[in-house]
Automatic annotation (TrEMBL), chain A:
Any one GO MF annotation of this record: ATP hydrolysis activity
Alphabetic keyword roster: ATP-binding, Nucleotide-binding, Transport
This protein's name: Manganese transporter
Span of domain ABC transporter: 13-247
Domain of life per record: Bacteria
Lineage of producing organism: Bacteria, Bacillati, Cyanobacteriota, Cyanophyceae, Synechococcales
Pfam family, one: ABC_tran
Record family assignment: Belongs to the ABC transporter superfamily.
Length: 254, 284
């Protein structure tokens, strides 16, 4: 844990004793974690370990059976109203044939801070432009989203989260199928986000990305098994607990 | 027959002027809604709701209420029932939809046969645009105007809802509200379309123009303009063809819509079959 944060500042993300069940099936039980502002945190676990449930809890989509989720000391609903939480979806969950341009999608990041008719004003156009320039998509802004490459698609949704002005970014498998250029650019952007004291929670299967980018890591298997500094948490024993001896994940990790 | 006469002569009949007017309005509004139906993947839902409104329409008729009220209650109600059955049984959603809407429709058929009135089953099933009653004419215009205003006002939220409901929720926009808004619009449009082409074919008006436009453009704004244009064009041409060939207006309108779709499917500049063959792309 960093000690520079003032004692008065609440953790950026505070999950305490969180349990979530779907129709009697426990997805997460007694999960707790705290992340300070400006943390890049990897979220590692098998499919079905509860990664998306944790994301859903942070977005207020599931009702916890026990426990609390606080974002910046506020309830999730309050944090949502302040546009604090952005979700960057997996590529597989997006309809890439949808008749929308890159600008249209990024502008959707602004909807929460617009009037009821969602008529973009000058500051909205400026926020969209700034975000698109940061992710280096300004030149491709009029493309239909399906005409982007895999890496560009990821960057478009990252730009939407930036345009939203979110301080907590939940990224679902952001490195799947991205090109080298995007990966480098995303690494740079993540460092910039850390300087801006945004907090990133990145779900990933790729251990190299965790050791490469993440200050902290959360290991999850129906509960939070361990979290903290990447170097301390990423031990053989912890990973064996996380993956339950699943050989696919242990290969190449020593 | 000279072309001018072909267009002018039917306008000498009040019933034809009314038919052209109402088909144009309904065709345009349903076409706008069809963009959302196509993108949300709600074609089957449109089919279900348009059938399930039948008992509501008959009950409203018998009680002297506006038909829209009955259609609204049963349209939204049928979807609520579909949701309940899906959640509480192991039956898959498409099966539940098929089962619920035919159940509602069958109940409607019984009610029609028991309510002794001038309510003609054939008119409900296949439309009666040439003999539309004055009060139905007014109601249809009001319903269409209401749906049009709702779709225009909530256009951007509804596009977001169709495209990425997760994002909508994460920024505090109520997807439950948008779901029922779209569903209510669908129920109301179904009863408006019922007056023009009847229950059986109304789903074509709620799906085909959107699908045609979807093949022609990659911009949502352009898609709505193309869908509404093709919806209105089909309604007008269909009504004229019906007049001159003494054929079913509903049939003519929907056949024109379908032909427009087929043309788009073959000749669309980017997503058409010819272009795909030319680019040597495998069809999706």
């Amino acid at each position: 844990m960093t000690t520079t944060a003032a004692a008065t500042e609440p953790p950026h993300i505070a999950v305490e004793h969180l349990s979530v069940s779907y129709a009697g099936v426990v997805a997460l039980s007694n999960a707790s974690l705290r992340l300070d502002r400006g943390t890049i945190c990897g979220l590692v676990g098998m499919n079905g370990a509860g990664k998306s449930t944790l994301f859903k809890a942070l977005m207020g989509f599931v009702r916890p059976s026990t426990g609390t989720v606080r974002i910046n000391g506020q309830s999730v609903a309050q944090a949502q109203r302040r546009q604090s939480v952005a979700y960057v979806p997996q590529a597989e969950s997006v309809d890439w044939d949808f008749p929308l341009s890159v600008t249209d999608v990024v502008m959707m990041g602004r909807y929460g801070s617009m009037g009821p008719l969602r008529n973009p004003r000058r500051r909205d156009h400026e926020a969209v432009r700034h975000s698109l320039e940061l992710v280096e998509l300004w030149n491709l802004r009029q493309r239909q989203i399906g005409e982007l490459s895999g890496g560009q698609r990821k960057r478009a949704f990252l730009a939407r989260a930036l345009a939203q002005g979110a301080s907590v970014l939940l990224l679902d498998e952001p490195f799947n199928g991205v090109d080298v250029r995007t990966e480098k650019l995303m690494a740079q952007l993540f460092m910039a986000f850390r300087r801006e004291r945004r907090t990133l929670l990145i779900s990933t299967h790729d251990m190299d990305h965790v050791t490469g980018f993440c200050d902290q890591v959360v290991l999850i298997n129906k509960t939070v098994l361990a979290y903290g500094e990447t170097g301390e948490v990423f031990t053989r024993e912890n990973l064996a607990l996380t993956f339950g001896g699943c050989p696919r994940y242990e290969e190449g990790w020593s | 027959m000279d072309p001018v006469g072909w267009f002018m002569e039917p306008l000498h009949h009040v019933f034809m002027v009314k038919a052209l007017l109402i088909s144009t309005v309904v065709g345009g509004v349903c076409a706008l809604l069809s963009c959302f139906m196509t993108l949300k993947g709600w074609a089957l839902m449109g089919d279900a709701v348009s059938h399930a409104v039948l008992p509501g329409v008959v009950i409203a008729y018998a009680l002297g209420l506006p038909l829209a009220v009955g259609a609204f209650v049963f349209g939204v109600g049928s979807v609520a029932v579909i949701g309940l059955v899906k959640q509480n049984t192991r039956v898959k959603e498409d099966t539940v939809i098929g089962l619920v809407f035919t159940g509602f429709f069958a109940l409607g058929l019984i009610l029609v046969s028991k309510v002794r009135s001038s309510l003609d089953l054939m008119h409900i099933l296949f439309g009666n645009v040439l003999g539309i009653r004055p009060q139905d004419f007014q109601q249809t215009l009001v319903i269409s105007a209401l749906v049009l205003v709702v779709l225009l006002v909530f256009r951007r939220d509804l596009v977001l809802f169709c495209f990425d409901p997760t994002h909508a929720r994460s920024i505090g926009i109520s997807t439950g509200f948008l779901y029922y808004l779209l569903l209510s619009s669908l129920s109301l449009a179904a009863v408006a379309g019922l007056q023009t082409v009847g229950i059986i074919l109304v789903v074509a008006m709620l799906v085909t123009p959107g699908a045609t436009a979807y093949l022609l453009t990659d911009s949502f704004g352009t898609m709505t303009v193309l869908a509404v244009t093709s919806g209105i064009f089909s309604s007008l041409l269909g009504a004229y063809l019906s007049y001159w060939s003494d054929a079913s207006p509903a049939g003519c309108i929907v056949v024109v819509q379908t032909l427009l779709f087929v043309m788009a499917m073959v000749f669309a500049p980017k997503h058409g079959l010819l272009q795909r063959a030319f680019n040597n792309q495998p069809p999706q």
